[in-house]
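thread from #wetlab-drylab

HS: before we spend reagent money on co-crystallization trials with 1-deoxynojirimycin, can we at least see a predicted complex? here's what I'd submit
DV: go for it
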Amino acid sequence: MSEQLVWWRNAVVYQIYPKSFADGNGDGVGDLSGAASRLDYLQALGVDAVWFSPIFPSPQCDGGYDVSDYRDIDPLFGTIADAERFIQEAHKRRIRVILDVVPNHSSIEHPFFIEAMKTSPGSAAWQRFHCVQGKGANGELPPNNWQSIFGGIAWTQIRNETGAPTGWWYLHLFDSGQPDLNWNHPDVVKEFDDTLRFWFDRGVDGIRIDVAQGMVKQAGYPDVKDVNDATLLDPHARPYFDQPEVHDIYRRWRKIADSYDAPRVFVAEAWLDTPEKRARYLRADELHTGFNFDLLTAEWNAEAWKRIITDSIAADALVGAPTTWVTENHDVRRSPTRYGGRVVHRQVATPQHLALGRVRALAAMHTILALPGTTYLFNGQELGLEEVIDLDDAQRQDPHFHRTRGEHLGRDGCRVPMPWSRTGVSLGFGPPTGSQPWLSQPASWAMLSVEAQEASPSSSLNRTRRAIEVRRTQQALLCGALEWDNDRCKDGVVVFRRVFAGHPTVVCIANMGSTTTPAVAGDLLCTSGDLVGGEVPPNTTAWFATRD
Ligand code: NOJ
């Protein structure tokens, strides 16, 4: 297949969290016109594709992951015409566009749910959801012990028109505003067939599938053994995740994607506990790629990184799929905060912690950009933004924070709007006369803004640009096999080669240890920080081209 058709095998994909990337209309919330105005920036950054977190109409009870209409655009973000314009403009710049579809659950404002609520539980309209009679004499107890991933039980009792409890409950693995859909119902299947075609027809190149291991629930809704174990980051096999029938859905979807010229692609968001389980979603007749979250939760530790890289590549190779690499997204703490040391709950990282964390985060990014497969970057990652821990609670919107009454701080801290300029009411996130951003930016972000970083050749932004540019021009980085330099992989150092016949070999040295490590003979292609006396210092990743 031509390189054009397999772009997704080695792309750099930039995640746009739409509320936080760029605000075109000045209402304090990011939108499509703002994103379109930053396409030149994305082109200069060198990314191959952008992935938008959901932009569909939504009451926004979970940042748009509660969709009330899968085939329209939320007025908060613009219109269908804005989306089409964005796609066209992106394509002109050779940037592909991936949208985020949420098939496990919809919203209580989706027409299916509105229709169900007008009928009695057990009606045909309720069959599109998981509507189950409760336990106890009057159904006053939930049907089982499943817990919502955002805290509390995963069921809400349905009330009749007078507000009286009915003894029937609906399932929501996330917030009560996100009722799980019943994938045994033909209307649900059709809703998503239509949705895929709708967006593919408008030129969308790919779809990210939210909670891709969800959708199918075990018949009879059996209890889980350990209710305390149900966290987003610790997905054990559960009667509501990773059920065998979910693969039938993807075989069907693959046919739809393949019916397009050029074929459209999928990326699965499936939190699974082994690379082998993840690879099962990536068989040739299922999904093209899936997020590999193992580095997203890994510490700054050479052995852990080497093991994860080895195991991930091996598992995906079994099904011929490329591996993906992610160190940040909208669901976890920003990497400078994670890598600088331990911060718990509301503890604010010290300047020393953040300085170390930022250097490591840039080295980590250089490491994943040197690996075979697709690399995902989260908006603002190129600037080295940290997690904003001390947001005012009144601003927090994440249901995880609210459903746990603040026990979990939630994910708002990684979603704070991007700083584009040194000055202005929103540091250039919106127009100069616009509103305050929906989450407050730290004043210190003026110095991390795009404008500030443009001016410095050694800034995180400029080093990221350089790394992506080098990656694009080195065939070994795009297509070469990975070989470990096992002799050098010790004392906290990770060294691998990317080898492609007829092209220079690229050696990547990631120094996660505490002492300087020698470079290799060859040309320095790029580095996350300055070399010291020709050697790679701690917390630095450097790439060299060799001809050996
Ligand atoms: C995964 C998404 O990444 C997350 O942000 C969302 O809250 C859940 N799925 C539920 O849709």
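DV: The domain at 3-105+186-454 is CATH 3.20.20.80 (TIM Barrel).
HS: ok that's useful, forwarding to the group
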